[in-house]
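Same chain as my last thread, 562 residues:
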Amino acid sequence: MSHNHEELEELLSRLNGPDFTAEDLQTLASILRNDPIALDCYLDHVEMEAMLRETYGLLHHPYAEHDRQTARPVSPRKVTRSRFLAGITLTAALLVAAFTFWPVKPQPAFVDDEPQSPLPPAAVPLQKFTQSDETVCTISHRTEAELYYRDGNREIRVQATALPAGQFRLENGIMGLAYANGANVILQAPVQFQVLSEQHLFVDNGRVNLHCPTEDSRGFVIETPSGVATDLGTEFAVHVKADRAQEDEFHVFQGEVALKSKLTPYELNLTDGMATRLDHDTATPAGIDVDHNRFIRSFESVSSDYYDQIMRHEPELYYVMADVGDGRTLRNEAENGYDAKIFNPYQRVLHWGPGFNGGTALRLDGMRSRVYAVAPDFPKPEGDHLTVIAWVFAESRVCWGSIAKNWEHGPDPARRGQFHFGLFEYSGMLEASINDKDNNEIFAIDSVPLPLNQWHHVAFVVDDGALRLYRNGSLVAETPCNGLNGNRDIRPLAIGTKLGNDSRSPAVKNNGFWDGRIDHLALFHQSLTTEEIRQLFDTGVRSALVSRSDFPHLESERTQSN
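reply #2:
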């Protein structure tokens, strides 16, 4: 047992007694501030004492042993309250010590908000940073980013773009960091990290992507609690799971990474398409599948080929699902107005995720977070010709899962707008439906459930004689119809849900909140041919393969469709 721990044990034995002095309190605060293990011991002590007091009364009562034998079990409510009491005890001790004995640090020059709440101890990297206001990197991109700087035992909101060495926490949003050597880092909240130098970043918790396109940026290091990853001319990502899993993952997309375990002699060279996990207890490497769908790797699509081909068909609406600066607007690339707005009512999920060909997509989380987007109005087709296309990624098959809908609820034909596009009931099969000139609701439904955790190119086409449904370049369903006759007074277009009959908020029943991602949604006042749909799919796959290498299902389906 270390001297600190012996002293802690002696202090705890006198903590609630009359001989516990102000000097003892100062000593206790110093130990807890500088020794994370001692802090854990202290937390265990006060929690246990509070629970025993709650259950049995005073610990040193002469009849404590008798009471312990006859006492009733502790209820969950009492345990919860005891944890609360323990938290109060700890907070009071630390606050008294902090304001009585600790010197007040000057606020760093690059922050301008008031200090926030005290923090738990951060993980300790192999290399420590030097406290300075000198810029190490700059914020190159921020989407609803809520960044905090850690100054001792307090947090301060960061508004500036130049970051010095230090400890940071990204609470919300997405953020890009640019280094003078050419290295680029993308962080997806929540992330806790430490900027150590121009070549060294420590990740305490969260997801980080690193791209080193220049010679000067090679050799950049991302350190985690269990390992040290050194760039050898590459793009790779790190996911530190510091809460329950207690493990770090390293995913290499391009190039090569030298990975060294911090607790074992293992050293690995990871190349394209390789990934490894290190647990925090032993830091022993274990191979895993590389995951291209977890990390945002760029803020724009890597290839413009798909975008260019869509624009050649002159869409009325085209949402590429890229942030335009405010984090909530989906800009219509057709430049005729009709932008859509993202609604994230509970702020439980980051509503941006990796796109199908790099860049970002609209990320939705089903009923858990109820994220969706709405264009208050959009151009309705004048005749019988309509095409809607999107890339979709489903993590589950929600009942009536909604991709995009201009529709209300109920059997009355007056409740039917221009189209209803998503999944059919509980089957999970892709479907599209319209109201034709005979006021019949016409369905086109796929024959198999939509495969999960894969990107799919989906489309439907209406002409004066049929409704056709496509998945990954292939015609999967076709139903005769008598043109198109949707109610034009139903104005909004909902993305990721279906609106209720007031056309202002999601329907109470069968709202179909999408669980997954939606990307590159386009609408045309023309009926694209089967060949044109297939060409768009082919171009999309080629552009996706430029930025990632895990599209075997799309590549095989593209070959079959040819």
